[in-house]
Amino acid sequence: MARINAASAYARLGTIGGLAKAVAQPAYIRKVAAEPLLRKLVPFLIVAFLGVAWTGAIIQLGNGRTEAIMAARVDLDLISSLSAMDLPIELDRSKAKTAAEFSAALAAALPASTADHQRYALLADERGRIIASTVPGETGRTLDSVLGGNQPLTMMADRAGVMRISLANGEDAIATVRNLPNGGQLAMVQTVSSILAGWRNRAISLLLLAAASTIVIAALGIAFFQQSARANEADQICAEVRHRIDTVLSSGRSGLWDWDIARGRIFWSDSLYELLGRQRSDDFLSFADIALLLYPGDANPFNAAMAMENPAACQIDGEFRLRHADLHWVWIRVRGRIANDGPTPHLVGIAVDITEEKAQAEQRATADRRVGDAIETISEAFALFDARSTLVVGNSKYQRLLALPPELMRPGTPLGLIIDKTNASQILHEETLSECETTGSRSYEMQLTDGRWFQVNERATNDGGHVSVSSDITAHKAYEQSLAASNMILEQTVTDLEASRAALQRQAIKLSELAESHLEKKAEAESANRAKAEFLANMSHELRTPLNHIIGFAEMMESGIYGPLGNDRYGEYVRDIGESGRYLLGVISDILDMSSLEAGRVKLERRQIALADVVQEAAASLEATAAARQITLDIDTAGPLHVIGDRKAFRQIIVGLLGNAVKFTTEGGKAGLRAKRAGDTVQLFFVDNGSGISEGDLARIGRPFEQNGAVIENGFKGSGLGFAIARSLVELHGGTIRVRSRVGIGTIVMVSLPVDGARVLLSGTPQER
Predict the structure, then answer these.
(1) What percent of the residues of the chain are helix, what percent strand, and what percent coil, each to the nearest 5?
(2) How far apart are CA 91 and CA 114, in angstroms?
(3) Closest Cα partner for 71 from 109, 122, 134, 119?
(4) To pair with 185 at 20 to 30 A between CA atoms, which of 29, 69, 204, 458?
(5) Residue-wise pLDDT tens digits, 140-168
(6) Which residues contact 641 (CB under 8 A, 6 or more apart)?
(7) 295 phi/psi in degrees, rounded to 5
């Protein structure tokens, strides 16, 4: 499988990078497939080899050291045994008595190779004192002082054999001791350093050889790794280049193909499969595979190339449709040429997805048709010229305007030829409206001999051409003429209006003068009214004092405090005087109240009032008058009602209006008061079945000092201020008063008062609870 994947990879690489020969070399592909494994094995093999080599060297050095020491022990044991047998003979023969003689006998008994191997011998007497030595400086010392006190050789001698000991001077050595027949001892000593001297030389040579081998192998490994890294870097660069090429091909909706002409197979790049939404199933495609994807009716350019007499010299350039995996059709354009850089000729090339171009071309054709239809349907004569001043498109209205033959309306007709063929005699008048050399725009009007007017607008386009649009403005010109006539009429009208405005200004001046005069008269009337109110107030005040005296004296005389008057007629006169004085005092009080209301000097004390109490109090003050005339009083307050206002003012309103109802009701009649709550207001209805009020008198009712005809005809007393005062007080509380009356039937007066008095500003003390 790895070999197949490697073959596929390098087949694609050959197509994209021009290395198609790699497909035809299986041995190279096998090497390439094995290369990743070798890259991993080589370091392991190097390390394993070096490990084995160094392990063998270390083992060999250890064994050599052990063998050298063992051989030295064997030699030392043999030499000491032979010397122990030969030494008594030499001593007997030489009859040695001195140290020199003993040393000579000792040297004679030892083998000649003893000194070459750095061995030395020590001869001790029966007391253990050294009497002869092969090395200077040891004579006279004890054997233990040389061999060390912690060794058993001097005691065990032959039985101890050869032992490894630490000498008295601290040096590591092997030694053996032999007992002599005369009671003395022979000691043979060899230092370990002298034993291992040859081994060290061999070890250094072996280590140098191993180090050199390691360096050489390491250098080879480093060279291999560098070469491998360079190969990896080259592979990465190649992969990156291949990825970039594939990315460019994919982003450009294109791909590469390679046609092996000799083998009759075609290789597609992955981007071509991506264009068709398909997955690669094999490295190569056959012509039958392409035929299955080809749109029925489209020509296969590969078949056309195969049909040539010399396919190796052919080139391909064609367009066809292939079926996408989603079953829609994709337009493909292929272009290729022969490549003879290999063993067999290949036809290589590129395939581009032109589906969008086809769709755009169709859209452009549709847009061109729509633009042509739109140009034809516009109401103006339209023509478009390119930078060479040749006709691009024009509608039939432009042709009719210039009376051009059909052959001059073809695209590419020069503008000069159109101007030459235009009948200039039909242009009666031409007038330039505007012209700009910078923008290349021009507007002008022309009149034809048949009376028609056209406005021509020419504008430069961005590509150096220009557009000519001609509009029929005959109706506009006719309208301008009619507008000019209308302007003349309008100017005359404006002149007349200016004259009328001057007359109106003069009248306005007169009206202003009259208004100023009216304001002066009004101010004088208001001043006179204030003077009248002040006069009445002062006069009423001056009259009330003597009237109070008259009333008081009349009441004293009537009561007879100081005795009877004498004649009964004097009593009647006194009563008449009192009643007349009280009547006159009431009239004066009404006048004073009215003048205060008109002068705005009345201040209300705003409190919460139980309306039923005020009504009962006012009705009680009128019961005597009503009973004297046999008039029935009907009072209905419909439960407890409370309002915010001035208690004295409410009593005056009720007494005034209910008194009028009693006064104007005939004897034996009926008068009444009904009160009820209606939303945020309280409504009071004053009803009587008296003589009623005529419509003419209703317009005057409520005016101060004015009385209706029934009052005058029937001789009713009164100042004519009661209703006016009541209305003023009602309005002062923010209420309204309305009157409905019919002559001979009766009258209804309705008073509507706000419950909380919020619509007026009232001053006074805190609310009454």
Answers:
(1) 55, 20, 25
(2) 19
(3) 119
(4) 69
(5) 888 888 888 777 887 887 888 888 888 88
(6) 610, 611, 612, 675, 676, 677, 682
(7) -65, 135
